[in-house]
Amino acid sequence: MLLPVLVFAFASLVVAAVGMRLLAGRTGVLERRLQEVTGGRAQEDTEQPQFQALVRVLKRVGNKVPRSPAEMGKLRLRLVRAGFRGEEALPIFFGIRVAMAIGVFAFFATPLFLRPNIGFAVAGLGLGYVLPGVVLARLGARRQHRVRLSLADALDLLVVSVEAGLGLDQALMRVGEELEFAYPELAQELRLVNLELRAGKGRVEALRNLGERTGVEDLASLCTMLIQTDKFGTSVAQSLRVHSETLRTKRRQRAEEAAAKTGVKMVFPLVFCVFPSIFVVTIGPAAIKFVTVLFPVIDKQ
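RE: above sequence
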């Protein structure tokens, strides 16, 4: 009886730690600036050792999980696209997956809150194993959406920087510095490009890595355009302007597509939520009157 209780407590701590981490990652730009000015980072540093023990335990569990090389490559790419680039991100993710699976299994298999049910416990074991992957995919999609929204402003700044006389490498560095607070995700990606260029990688390889690392189609097309511009020696500023107009046209088409889908998406809420209440208000009194008048007549006959 003691082992399931300990397992459930450990899984609860894991879920709480992940939730606090996700909430901390959603801190706004203004809050981050206030923390930097008022010294709020010092309080976070004092709380850091409390999570280090949990991270070490998850990493130790994740290192013992058997993995296939093909799955590791795909999962590492998903972690990178979600913003987790550390070497220990992969074992920590495996540790969270195992802890969630054991925790959900213990929740349904022990009589702490519900009556024990082996069928639900086995189903919960699979659900707990799959749920971290679903959350990771959701985090990656949200990060890609933020990067996609920041491309328009980044292209405008890039055009201005190139037309002002900066080279493409210096323009990318300048844009990354200017977008640090407004769009930290894209600024981080551009900073990685600059680091790769300083480390000796070619510009073509660095730009290809940028498109592959983010998984954003618009950014990948931008990188392809810059590679072709560099290869054929055409004007970078003119190419960026044309690509910026194309990008804005695609954004307008996406907005029009989303607006066209609104009518179809409203069908289900109207049918299942709005129409029943309207029917109750309009037809309800008549139905009640009909029942009160008709049933006595039927009983008399």
